[in-house]
Amino acid sequence: MKCLLTVSLAGLSLAAGCQPQAPQDAPPPRLVVLCAVDQLAAWVFAAGQPHLSPDGGFARLAREGVTFTQCAYEHACTETGPGHATVGTGVAANVHGIVRNKWWVPALNKAIYCVDEKVAALPDLPEGKDRGAGLMLAETLAGAMKQGIRGSLAGSVAWKDRSAIAMAGPKADLAVWCENATGRFVTNTGWTAQTPQWLQLWNGRAVIDSFFRQQWERTGPDSAYAGLVDDRPYELAHFNGTQMRTLPTSLDGGLSKPGVEFYTQIYNSPFGNTTVRLAAEAMVRGMGLGADAIPDVLCVGFSSTDLVGHYFGPDSVEARDALLRLDRDLLTLLAFLDAQVGKGQWAMFVTADHGIVMTPEWARAQGVDAGRGAIQTMVGAAVEKSLRDRFGVPADSKRYLSHVGEYSLFFDDAVLESVRGDTPIAELRAAASQVAAAAATKAKGIAAAYSTAELLASGGTDAIEKALVKALAPGRAGEVQLVVKPNWLDGTTPASHGSPHPYDREVVGFAIGGGAPAGVVCTDPITPGFGAVWFRQRLGLPRPAAAVDTVPASFGVR
Fold first, then answer.
1. Residue 229 carries which DSSP code?
2. Do residues 228 and 314 share a domain?
3. How far apart are CA 468 and CA 460, in angstroms?
4. For 505, which of 36, 68, 110, 466 is 20 to 30 Å away at the CA?
């Protein structure tokens, strides 16, 4: 599979060093925008780009800004939480600490969610309780602006809570997300003492309900879906009780009036992205973002692209249609910023939180080696047997492994202690890690397995190992790290992500406004954290610690 982003070069300048024009001094933008599309792999965009409108949002980004052809994550943990945290902070997961959507905590004997935090709800938004950015270890762009620019405002909105929260961080004025149970956009006391009036009005208008019983049908010409199949048996059915896997389909959740099933279906459709776009516009108006010369920041997370890709596959008619519709939403958002903030008064970086793999069944039909299965379950069984064969059977039928998940293996310290005899515990742990890694590599669907301690000691010797190292934060990693074979999936969901392979790490990247040169295709490598680095430099704020991105001189910043 080709995973490099390709774009139409008509009318654009190709620059390996991304410096085709001299820097120009300009006042700082009134509003900087970090926009993360959930699950937009470079290869998915490359396949869909020829079918996008020449007058669409992506075309405007390319025409008036910079297209980065080599935008990829440093870290292997290609999931929503880590990705949005990188977009917000400018650094990899080993620095910002959001190493997975959830990770195992041995001391608690359970997994914790990346935005779990005991936070009181607002009285009128009880759904928003117990969500926060307390597990983040690095400062976001929003936090840096709040601290370094007096009077700066910072807002973040997405359908997913972890998306809005990880981009915003704890110091933002507001992080807002949608709760499927009620269809309301919510926040909590971690950001505000009372629900802002604009958000009360938004929820009072029940904007999502306006989509009830609308039809999701193909929005592009037949040629835009050429080569795609609209009824594949491994796709999930649309969330309206019809058990159908095709377009058009009714957006009603199988209900007679809006309710949780309907809101869930909207979340699993392109109309979820449209809803987020409308909420972002309401946030800009309501908070007065970009209304004066003091720079503000807006973070926008288009979450629904991810659900469509997961449940229908990135190679589906639904996913292609979602991309076409996102193109329109982006165009509308850019025009809104022109009208509300002022053309030339805002800047935006558009990227994605992670990529996606082809559905294995579709990949095999294209001649690609691919598969799926209960991979981690099989790894756990194989590793447990090898540990018992090597170190003996623990007493009371206990297990060496306390947890297998998130492509990591965790040992039970008490069990290791019980069998170590005169062997120092550190020596036993190292030996057990080697045994476990060797056993894991023999399991179906596993390409490689590594001792975490050995990875950290070496720093990684190839791209995969280095990506794994960038995903390991102290106290948030198991003893062994697993890598699935390319194009293999753990589980039954049509498609997913989370690996260090290129299709999961390589994503889109666009910069517009704020001094970014127009019509340039940049082949220099960047990470999706580029926007946070660029905007900090543009606004005269300290560079994020451990950031690897550099801002080309052609962007007009010193």
1. -
2. yes
3. 8
4. 110
Please check whether residue 1 lies inside any domain of the structure.
Answer: no
Q: What is the mean pLDDT of the chain?
A: 95
Please compute the mean of the pLDDT values over residues 10-34 and round it to a whole number. 67
CA gap 526, 263 in Å, rounded: 36
**Cα–Cα distance, 95 to 75 (Å, whole number):** 10
Residue 252 lies in a domain: yes
Q: The CATH number of the domain where 376 resides is what? A: 3.30.1360.150
Cα–Cα distance between 328 and 274 in angstroms, integer?
9
Cα–Cα separations (whole angstroms), residue 436 to 1, 2, 92, 382, 443: 31, 33, 27, 8, 11
Q: Which residue, among 450, 378, 413, 467, has the nearest Cα to 72 in the 3D structure? A: 467
Q: Are residues 55 and 131 in the same domain?
A: yes
For residues 65 and 159, state if they share a domain.
Answer: yes
How far apart CA 105 and CA 94 sit, in angstroms, is 16
Closest CA to 234 of 312, 309, 318, 304: 312
CB-based contact 504:496 (threshold 8 Å): no
285 and 164 in a common domain: yes
Q: Residue 428 is part of which domain span?
A: 371-485
Sheet holding 408-411, edge to edge: 401-405, 408-411, 480-484, 446-451
- Euclidean distance between CA atoms 235 and 558, whole angstroms: 50
In the numeric block, the tokens 């954290």 are attached to 529
The closest alpha carbon to 61, from 517, 463, 385, belongs to: 517
Same domain, 97 and 22: yes
Tens-place pLDDT, residues 494-525: 999 999 999 999 999 999 999 999 999 999 99
Half-sphere exposure at residue 399, Cβ-oriented, CA atoms within 13 angstroms: 14
Contacts of 463 by beta carbon, 8 Å cutoff, 6+ apart: 500
Task: Let me know whether 434 and 528 are in one domain.
Answer: no
**530 is a domain residue:** yes
Lookup result for tokens 């890690």: 433
- Residue 465 forms part of a structural domain: yes
Residues 440 and 344 in one domain: no
Candidates 216, 491, 481; CA nearest to 357 is 491
Domain count, the chain: 2
Kindly report, residue by residue over 135-149, the tens digit of the pLDDT: 999 999 999 999 999
- Pull the structure tokens for residue 212: 């009830």
pLDDT digits (tens, 9 = 90+) for 196-238: 999 999 999 999 999 999 999 999 999 999 999 999 999 999 9
For the CA atoms of 214, 219, 221, 222, the dihedral, rounded to the nearest 10 degrees, stands at -60
Helices (H), 420-478: 425-440, 452-458, 463-469
> Is the same domain home to 355 and 447?
no
CA pair distance 378, 339, nearest whole angstrom: 56
DSSP state of 224: G
Degrees to nearest 5, angle at CA 116 with 199 and 504: 95
The type of residue at 345 is Q
